[in-house]
Amino acid sequence: MSGQYFSPNPEAKSRESEIVAELQGTSLRFMTDQGTFSKGHLDEGSALLLQSLPALAGRAADLGAGWGPIGCFLAAWNEGLELTLIEPNQRAAALAERNAALNHLGNVRVLCGDGRELLPPGLDFILTNPPIRAGKAVVYGLFAAAHAALKAGGILYLVIRKQQGAQSAQGYLRGLFASVECIARKKGFWVLRCAK
Q1: Which residue has the higher pLDDT, 45 or 13?
Q2: Pairwise CA distance, residues 5 & 1, whole Å
Q3: pLDDT at residue 132 tops 90
Q4: Alpha-carbon Rg of the chain, whole angstroms?
């Protein structure tokens, strides 16, 4: 487990690199590193999730934030959004904090640890590209924690591949949320909108 991107202390030797990611006319700079999810590029699932979102306002959390691409784009696009990035991997969390500063995003705070324990209550939105390789028990635990942390009417947005359990995840989420709908599909990725 310690060699995985969702481990608190990745074993891979640090080798940082800087990238530029562009989405919907916005270019942001990021530092990435070995031992983190999708090092070196914005992954397709996260890009699709971001492109599927309306404007957001209020309080939100990026659950399993990695080096911060989802949270940083959200913060850049939604100046009034109060955003918490939560990531268990210490290396990735440190990068997320640096990347928020690198892009002058003052509406971002980063917490390092287990999202099931660190999600603040009363959130309007939670966004996640969940760590599928951590296993169903962990991922479904994150979904349950997200439901508990959202206020009434709050929304969980997530992206998941069809071949990595999108349909079974959708079934589980329908047992938690008042409504669950697929709002985007592309190259096997599904974006789900789950309203409490």
Answers
A1: 45
A2: 9
A3: no
A4: 15
Strand order in the sheet with 82-87: 108-112, 82-87, 59-63, 123-128, 150-161, 189-195, 179-186
Which is it for strands 189-195 and 179-186: parallel, antiparallel or unpaired? antiparallel
Examine residue 110 and state whether it is found in any structural domain, yes or no. Answer: yes
Range of the domain at 62: 43-195
Instruction: Tell me, rounded to whole angstroms, the distance of Cα 1 from its chain centroid.
Output: 20
Count other C-beta atoms under 10 Å from residue 175's C-beta.
10
Confidence tier at 7 by pLDDT (50, 70, 90) = low
- Based on the structure, what is the number of domains in the chain? 1
Quick check: is 189 in a domain?
yes
C-alpha–C-alpha distance, residues 24 and 73, integer Å? 10
CATH assignment at residue 98: 3.40.50.150
What is the rounded (10 degree) CA torsion for 32, 53, 24, 40?
Answer: 20
**Angstrom distance (rounded) from CA 181 to CA 115:** 23
- Cβ neighbours of residue 121 closer than 8 Å, sequence gap 6 or more: 148, 149, 151
Contact 145, 18 (CB under 8 A): no
Q: Can you count the helices (H) and strands (E) in the chain?
A: 6, 9
